Amino acid sequence: MLSNIxxxxxxxxxxxxxxxxxxxxxxxxxxxxYDSAQIKxxxxxxxxxxxxxxxxxxxxxxxxxxxxxKNIVVLSPIILFLFSGLFSxxxxxxxxxxxxxxxxxxxxxxxxxxxxxxFKDRKSLKRLINTLIFATYVVCIYAVIQxxxxxxxxxxxxKGLDPFVWRWAFGERIFSTFGNPNFxxxxxxxxxxxxxxxxxxxxxxxxxxxxxxxxFSTIFSYSKGxxxxxxxxxxxxxxxxxxxILNIEKKNKIxxxxxxxxxxxxxxxGGTLFQLKKRPDSSSFRVFTWLSCWEMINTHPIIGTxxxxxxxxxxxxxxxxxFFIEGMHNTESDHPENEYLEIFYDEGLIGLGIFxxxxxxxxxxxxxxxxxxxxxxISDNTVSYLQVGLISALVAQLAHDCVCVSLRFVSSGVMxxxxxxxxxxxxxxxxxxxxxxxxxxYIFIPxxxxxxxxxxxxxxxxxxxxxxxxxxxxxxxxSKAIQVSKSNNFSQSIELYNQVIKKNPxxxxxxxxxxxxxxxxxxxxDPQKAIEEYxxxxxxxxxxxxxxxxxxxxxxxxxxxxxxxxxxxxxxxxEQAKQEAIAKRDESFKQAVKFFNQYKMIDxxxxxxxxxxxxxxxxxxxxxxAKKEYLEHINYPRKLQxxxxxxxxxxxxxxxxPEYAQTFLYLGGLEFMMNKIDNAEQMFIEALxxxxxxxxxxxxLSTVYIKKQDNAKYKEIVKxxxxxxxxxxxxxxxxxxx
Length: 738
Hints:
mainly alpha; 2 domains
């Protein structure tokens, strides 16, 4: 009696819980966390663990692990991919970071196995697909709301049709519940062929309407990768539909496929090229990232570096052009914009080979299944149409993921393994139909053993759910901590970051912000606390964002502190204390220079690094070294015209003219201080080339001409200053003649 109840409850939980799981992953978002997609991650973690543990307990209860053995040929590539992730985790140099990706790998692989094992009839598959269709309606309707909001309502902070604070987060690009147009596009890419296939079978208006909503949403996501995937999905569908469903002559099939392909390629290629012209940086960003990733792959090409570690090692390989393209320095690229390159980097040729083996296995099974439908003349049933849609969706997603990172994000990652599971499940439904012996064999497990294992699994499940809910809480607290630190309440924000780290030790960003808060607060013991925290960060991520730069700032402040302390002891005539302070000052100086130089290797175009180093050298009387820093910053873009960067040439300084103008101003000021007046004049003139009529540049030139007693040039500059900046206090003091 108890056994029957357990079987029924667990079975219902799996058959109804998994569709609900997919629905929630698609439609959920929560803006109270730092990452709006954290709720999706938490659903995948908690829901995935609940489903996996329920399935294992169910298999123990039914004594039916024989099904796994029976389908081992089909399941073995998936199992191998799971073990590849485990192996990669154990040899990873950054296991805490690798653990996050490994958890997703485990959940993904088990999801496909659960679908293959439990969704073995049309009714359960229909429930799953209908739930996805309902979810697609929800996200597409919200996408239309976003479209109307961004076209016919005022921009934030004014209120619009979209009631949520993330409205206009990507300008006119719509992203629905996914928080990112590319991830939204990936979901649409998957659902488009499935909905299209079911429409051709059922001729239902609501399916046609949904497909039109999908097409509309895909277009206005302005995601070039999604457009490519969408087009590939249509072409794949046309090929499979004509080859396995339509009962027409071969000649007509070829004509139909060619027409569909040419039409789709023309529209998608035209739209993609148009967007590339509007936003060329997105393509160059990917090319530079792929080049860096290829260099990373070559460090461990056979077994890879470690699952989920790309973002930790990437800063050492990142091309400097990326900083020009992004226009920022305090961000990181978590993934290389290509799933195959990332698997290659993570797990080497072995892992990539296993992933490709999965795809070969799935396509082999699916095409044999479609051939079976055609041979048995049952290709007009709903399942055969659905199989065509699922295969087309898989092809489309795999194409999309050649130029996007979406599989590394849960909303898209779960969809790949759903496609794999459903394709195999449909194939297996029919693979045993013609066999006489379809009875399941059982492996006898004593009741006591069942209950012990089930209790252990249940306790493990509860513990993991508690941990993953803590990750969600950590993201909420992290968001609060950022807001508190913005109000300069550093003590409270540090306490909040401590809570974040306690709940999620792998949350590197929280440690980074905590260290920066010590740096900003700068109370007693804060310098040492900041240093300790940065060192902890580097154990997890050796070159995390701008941590080396901020460590340089800590030692710069200490240099100034000990220098002032030494001057104080000079006045007090305390020789011993003075020498101790000088020793600490000199050591802090060396450390500051060391960390700034380390950051230059990671980010060689960040102007502030050069300015900080030059300032240190000026304060220590090393003027030539200070000049060298300014010149290095000015000259660096020229290096990007040389090997190995010269495959793509651009005058990168154009993107940052004000920044280079400032460097010339600083260099001119240094030359002026060194009494090299002609050099100073030339530097100020160069600054004005980058920033014409810049107030500081014009004022600096006026001081040069006063020094040189060049009245003609002085009068010319004064005239410009009087015209442009008559209210400036310095300009008011200038006379008509020297």
